[in-house]
Structure formats: C-alpha cells, structure tokens
Design goal:
single chain, alpha+beta, HU Protein, Chain A, three-stranded antiparallel sheet, two-stranded antiparallel sheet, 40% helix, elongated
Length: 95
Amino acid sequence: MIRSELITKLAEENPHLYQRDVERIVNAIFEEIIEAMAKGDRVELRGFGAFSVKKRDARVGRNPRTGESVAVEEKHVPFFKAGKLLRDRLNGQEG
C-alpha cells in the first residue's frame, strides 16, 4: 500500500472527514515520526512496532564491479521492529 492508497482508504472509512484533511493528518503523523527519528528518538506504536535509528560504523567495502576496496563512511539507518500483535497477525493468529 502506498501513501495515496492509505489516504483514500481512510477517507472512505471516515466519510465525515474531507480527503484533504485525512491527507494532512497522515502527512503530520509521518512528519512527526521522521522528526523524532532525526533527533535520534525511538517511536513506538503499540501493537504495530517501533521505529529507531541504528548507527553503522565506518568500514572498508568492495566495489562489486572491480573488486577494489572502497571506504564506506559511518551512517545512521532507520530500523523497524514489528510488535507482537503485528507478528501474530502475519502468522495467522488473532491478537
């Protein structure tokens, strides 16, 4: 599902809201998650999962085409850990 499909589905399920308002709400939620992670904070949505930031140390990698060694800089990457309810649903169990 992409963002526009999510917005459309939420707007259909909530006919008392305008689609543009649903879009603002969805965008605000994503923006808050991004802002929190940019500050290094963890974002937990109970039953769904937790978003966090992990640090990857600098290392020496290889160019797959030439086999040449390449320096890879330290970087921060987003990480998602699924919650118990989500894992149970994916495995056909009701939570």
